[in-house]
Amino acid sequence: MARAKPDLPDAEALRALAKGGELRVRVTPGARTESISILDGGVQVKVRAKPQDGAANAAVEALVAKALGIPKSHCRLLRGATSREKVLAVTL
Question: Are 85 and 24 in contact (CB under 8 A)?
Answer without folding.
Answer: yes
